[in-house]
Amino acid sequence: MKSNFRFRVGIFDASRPALLLACLLLPWNTQAAKSAPTFAADVAPILFEKCASCHNPEGIGPMPLLDYADVKPWAGLISYKVQAREMPPWHLDKTTGIQNYKNDISLSDEQIATIVAWAESGSPEGDPSALPPMPALPNGAQWQMAELLGPPDFVVKAPPYTIAANAQDQWWVRNTPFEGLIDEPRYVRATELKGSYPLGVKVLHHGHATLTSQDADGLRVSGPVGRQGVGKSGDLFAEGTGMLIHPSGQITWNLHYFPIAQEVRNEQAEAAVWLYPEGYKPDFETRGEQFFAADTGPGGLWAGDLLLPPHTIKSQQGVRVLNRPALITSFRPHMHMRGRAQSLEAVYPDGRREMLARVDKYNHSWQISYKFDDDAAPLLPKGTMLMITSTWDNTADNPNNPDPRQWVVFGQRGVDEMSHLWLGITYLTDAQFERLSAERRGRLTAQNGP
Prior knowledge:
By secondary structure, the chain is an alpha+beta fold. It is 19% helix and 31% strand. Helix 2 crosses helix 5 and helix 4 runs antiparallel to helix 5.
């Protein structure tokens, strides 16, 4: 008797499990798509706030980052750069020293995570109606301080200089007379130095315009009427702080140019100065941003002991003792292409040590002045030692090193080296130091409690 039972052999359909899996994952994928960051709602606000000032058609950034079409092709590179904390440029060591700055453009961990997640999810555009308003962009033809202070009281110009195309970096040092712009000693409120527009602003890497005069006693006095660097804005002194200048003297222009692919003819750097009203005398007098060397010589720029052998890492320290109390408002390291790290440490008269600021990813392409928040700015008693430590990396591991086989000495070219920093510093009387210390303690107590 035949059984009615028959075993049916079917054909295996490989698409069915995949279809089933897709059906199971559809709700999850839909939710993930909804929660993935988009350019319009999540990424553009970060780029507009942190990047657009350089990454615009007239900025120094290599590409504009103002709309989705601009940004989409660079999504992967942007993700890499922000994860490495190479962009935006903020080279401070986040594990030590003061971390409160007025001009901090670094990204938070959350902002970095947003950009990375956006790039990894395919860089979706999102709803264009969610875009924030286009940011107000700086204009290289205008003084940036003018937005806050109005037109400058006077502007001085360097002699013209032609920067050759695709050449080595070049220094331009000249003196010009300072006469007829003020008729009595006046206090400076702010200064700004920039290259001429439109090409001078692209080749001026950093520079100084220093006014040297004689005071009423016939003593030589000097101070900056402009300091510039890529990534550094003008200098605005705190309310009640000013720099005294005199009616006649000489301006020394010390300008460092990095050539571009075209010749820049008759570039004339300009320095603008904003003054306090006539007759005004501020509570605090400063000489502006000042030079501090990190070498074992007498403290001058021409340190003879700076020598980097091939394929080596070297550090050097210098110590300067404050013979008066002082308030430090900004920190600007300066080395060249082999520079890797530089730090400023305070050793107090009681022996206590405090790291004030340290850059651990120094990059000579940028000349950033790190401006301390008011109640974080170092307020230092007389007798404090400032310990300045510079570290150079003359090895192949340094991506900025043009040739690790070379012996490197001090020099003005980018391929040579330097070892100093610039501090925004105001020296104080003992009474002023005690007053500022008490006022700061009162503010911090009010904020944080006793």
